[in-house]
Amino acid sequence: MKVVKFGGSSLASGKQVEKVFQIVVSDPKRKIVVVSAPGKRSPEDEKVTDLLIECARLCLQNKNPQEKLNTVIERYAAIAQELNLSEEIINDILQDLQTRLTADKRNPDKFMDLVKASGEDNNAKLVAAFFRQQGVEAHYVNPKEAGLFVSDEPGNAQVLPESYDKLFSLRERSGIIIFPGFFGYSKEGEVFTFSRSGSDITGSILANGLKAELYENFTDVDAVYSVNPFIINSPKEIKELTYREMRELSYAGFTVLHDEALVPAFRAGIPVHIKNTNNPNAPGTKIVYERDNTNGPVIGIASDKGFCSIYVSKYLMNREIGFGRRLLAILESYGLSYEHTPSGIDDISIILRENQFTPGMEEEIVDRIKTELDSDEVVIEHSLALIMVVGEGMRHNIGTTARASKALAKANVNIEMINQGSSEVSMMFGVKEIDEKRAVQALYEEFFAAVAV
Amino acid sequence: MKVVKFGGSSLASGKQVEKVFQIVVSDPKRKIVVVSAPGKRSPEDEKVTDLLIECARLCLQNKNPQEKLNTVIERYAAIAQELNLSEEIINDILQDLQTRLTADKRNPDKFMDLVKASGEDNNAKLVAAFFRQQGVEAHYVNPKEAGLFVSDEPGNAQVLPESYDKLFSLRERSGIIIFPGFFGYSKEGEVFTFSRSGSDITGSILANGLKAELYENFTDVDAVYSVNPFIINSPKEIKELTYREMRELSYAGFTVLHDEALVPAFRAGIPVHIKNTNNPNAPGTKIVYERDNTNGPVIGIASDKGFCSIYVSKYLMNREIGFGRRLLAILESYGLSYEHTPSGIDDISIILRENQFTPGMEEEIVDRIKTELDSDEVVIEHSLALIMVVGEGMRHNIGTTARASKALAKANVNIEMINQGSSEVSMMFGVKEIDEKRAVQALYEEFFAAVAV
To answer: Each residue of A280-337: pLDDT tens digit?
Structure first.
């Protein structure tokens, strides 16, 4: 039995929903179908979820949401019309939305979640109706009825452990189950959504709860690329990678799958298969527990800009027990999260995303580190990029570091920082932002260009 | 004006004291002479300081210290005899020691400091007597009289800032000043010693207080070596290095000079010259603020065994603000100091010296990290060696990392860890202990073998 999830672009139009139907019925093991809200039909289009957020916001500001509401209804209507569905389904959706928009607004965050969740919920009903029209037994199942319970954190709900056992009984239902992604219910019966792109999470939770053999995640790319296609033209596709590799690559928002979404599948050891709705015969990318390390030590390269480094030096620092802990406590008091802390004998640097600073915060932090920790020198360096070189094969591969650093030297890139040694499947280089592209190209050339696909 | 300090082996016998005399009088700028207690004459010999510690310990245990006391007196007597000094000086020393051994023992640590400090104190008197016998104006100066005041921390005294101004007036005294190293006086007039090898600290404090042009530190080696001579046969000597390089090299207890000792000279910008009492014409090693970066990017390689790594992994760790701080707080609660904390996206390793663990502590720490931080995995890896590659020239030298890691790969050494990016003058590699020697040899070969001396 397989859990299959379709993203917003896979359900953006009637034509796309037809593809989804063909994909589902082509494999009788595809029993559970998790759907997102309709996404963009073209780069200029709006996602239904964004329109719903706008509706909710207008209501909260006591403004008239009618225009936005019409746009939402028109999206569903366009799909229904393309699929020759009866008007009834659109009336149901309109009624549902009107009810939601008149709900209690005393807690704005909860109200927002209730409205946002309708995008998936109504789309699941629509998709189920289309499957039935095609003569296939298909049922919309509501998360409350199925037992998908979550914590009461608006926009960031966490699945409650007891859900998994309850969801298992979905196996006994007949026909194909069409399940809305993105939200669950609190114990009090209220709607709470996962973080954005949370339909991936719903699919992963269902795969875990139902003990599926596979979690198929259909999106609009053929595969996970080995490197950002904006940096390298048509880079190599990754056929298979481990959960750990996927997680390390996600460092820079690089992957097609929501980070948290891997957790439930990972804990249950269920492989995740990323495939393309628009090209279902492409092999896609499979995320697994273990894999053969053929084709070289490196599987992918991720990179991102926008980091800075807070350099702190103090003579005899390494004799001072508690220095590092007190330094981190200062950052924590500003709610800052950091990435790495490379250190010398008398100095330490904290690498963090620079967009976390609010005006004046930088100066205040420098000042506090100087005075409270009696530091000799505190300097902030901006505009750094981090590059992650990822692969299970590097674990005990002597010479990978040498190859990587030699490639960077040849490309005339100065390595500002190296972090290697904790994760066995990645190696991190810090470079100046202006060197990022050249650095990634050099590393790709070194580890991929010569490798057979 | 120069401050000159002589170590224990430079004063271990009459013949050595004669060398010291020749060195001092050969340069009229050598006005302040700081002396250690007599050291070892041969590898099997005992240092006077060790004998004194044993004396004090016996007294504290209400045992008879006479035998050890005799050995101490015999050491001074042998030197005095070799130098044809009168018996008077030995009687003075005996009387001084007997007075100290009958002092108040209610605070054993203070009593220990009082006895230990006699090694330097009495040796300064003896050396001054010899200088005078040679017809040179020389005066023993007591630290209390000179104004060298310290905190009341037995065995770990810290100089009080007001001392520097007081010491400046020593410049006005006539003749050569023979000053005992290793100790000062509290504001209450009691003796407190610096940490072990603290005569280096005394010399550095005097150099700062007197605004000396140079602090000469005479010991028994020709120079600081670029690498441990037990690993490489007759390694290249370092002619000049910066304070920062010296400090990074001292990482592994590699240097000939006490770590803390550099601080006062460093703060006053006074160069430190390490020279050999037994070969005073050798150029020695000069520690300076800045130097020319000729002869390649690397100036030295230090290494040490006996480290371990505590590996902690937790899925989505990098989203958890405060994780690192709480992890370090656990280690701090055991008084453990750590060296580095390389990190991946979902994992962090803490590198520390494994001799800090007491029985049972390891298991307890692993358990606390697992439960208190809800970690997925906690593993301690033992028997690691750290290798520091040091040089101001690496700061912006593209390719140094590539050369180092390539050399290690060629020597078939797996790099367990790299820490580079905070200190601009060093790069650290972690390897398995069994690979340490091969790794250092490979790095030496790469950075030194081809470089002209």
So the answer is: 999 999 999 888 766 678 999 999 999 999 999 988 887 788 899 999 999 999 999 8
Domain boundary among A185, A220, A255: A220
Choose among B263, B342, B396: nearest Cβ to A315: B263
pLDDT 10s digits, A23-75? 999 999 999 999 999 999 999 999 999 999 999 999 999 999 999 999 999 99
- Domain range for A391 is 300-449
Nearest Cα to Cα of residue A328 among A345, A352, A353: A352
Q: Is the dihedral of CA A443, A449, A450, A453 positive or negative?
A: positive
Residue A260 lies in a domain: no
CATH of the domain at A423: 3.30.2130.10
> Nearest C-alpha of chain A: how many angstroms from B260?
8
Establish if B256 belongs to a structural domain. no
State the average pLDDT for chain A: 92
Looking at beta carbons, which residues of chain B come within 8 Å of A324? 328, 338, 341
Which two structure tokens, joined as six digits, stand for B186? 């509290």
Distance, in Å, from the CA atom of B308 to the CA atom of B121, rounded to the nearest integer, reads 41
- Residue of chain B with shortest Cα separation from A251: B345
Record: contact A318-B324, CB cut-off 8 A: no
ipTM: 0.79
- B369 SS3 class: helix
Residue ranges in chain B whose pLDDT is less than 50 = 452-453
B6 annotated to a ligand binding site: yes
- Is A401 within 8 Å of B422 when comparing Cβ atoms? no
Best probe of the B interface among A267, A345, A351, A388, by most B CBs < 10 A, is A345
Provide the number of structural domains found in chain A: 2
| DSSP-H helix ranges across B259-343 | 262-268, 323-332
